[in-house]
Amino acid sequence: MADLVPEAATESVEVNRATLLDGLPHGFLGRRGGLSEGEVAGLNVGRGSGDDLDLVERNREIAAAAVLPGARLITVYQVHSADCVTLGEEAWSEGAKVDQRPKADAIVTNRPGVVLGILTADCAPVLFADREAGVIGAAHAGWRGAIGGVTDSTIAAMEALGARRESIVAAVGPCIAQESYEVDAAFRDRFVTDDLPNMRFFAEGRPDHFQFDLEGYVLCRLRAAGIGRVEGLRLDTYTDAERFYSFRRATHRGELSYGRQISLVGLG
């Protein structure tokens, strides 16, 4: 449990924070700190990374303790969807062997004493809060979830718990930056067909290829939803190997595995 994690174990953990969430237990964590070694060295929290599961579980405890000591970590089984689930009085298993977590890519709650976690390795983590209503949320916005409306689903679920759209703030954490995210014409066409103005999120690259601004697109979706304020941390997971895990970087390097970082938000 997180309350058993020695304080010294969290000292080397880098916790990137958002101005809009100041004063609320939260953090966009990277790979600094933790117990994993080799290609996934650091604070790897990915159970599907091929890493030693005992180390992964310990890393998850360290991560949660770095943000909200004593809180229970709650995550979902991410599937690149637009689905959001609500954590009420019940709490599903966080066990490594028998995975009973719901398949979804966002989670909301008004329950104190827990910390919601979203895993990423280039996709955009988004943390939400309505302080007045005491409602928080976390979303995993890869390109599929982003265009599918995972942030919209999260906002709607928060409203169902009593949040007010105009009082919700949201921050987008470390993700792959536009200069690092090359896509082909078919990828671009999915977004342009959905909404022609999406063309502005694609910069010209090499022939028949483009550079996609994932963070910019997610921020635009959040603003269009009419929430109070939004913030982007502008941290590139691909280029900063010392601080962040990156699926695309690991692929380009021919590495056999890649780690996952976690973004967390809780109610004390």
End-to-end span in angstroms? 16 Å
- Can you tell me the CATH topology? CNF1/YfiH-like putative cysteine hydrolases
Low-pLDDT ranges: none
Radius of gyration: 18 Å
**Number of E-type strands:** 14
The helix/strand order is: HEEHEEEEEEHHEEHEEHEHE
How much helix is in the residues? 10-25%
Total domains:
1
Global mean pLDDT: 94
Strand order of the largest sheet: 4-5-8-7-9-13
Question: In percent, how much strand structure appears in the residues?
Answer: 15-25%
Q: CATH homologous superfamily, by name?
A: CNF1/YfiH-like putative cysteine hydrolases
Estimate the global geometry from the Cα principal axes.
globular
Please summarize the sheet with the most strands.
6 strands, mixed
CATH architecture: 4-Layer Sandwich
Question: How many separate helices?
Answer: 7
Any idea of the CATH class?
Answer: Alpha Beta
Secondary-structure content class = alpha+beta
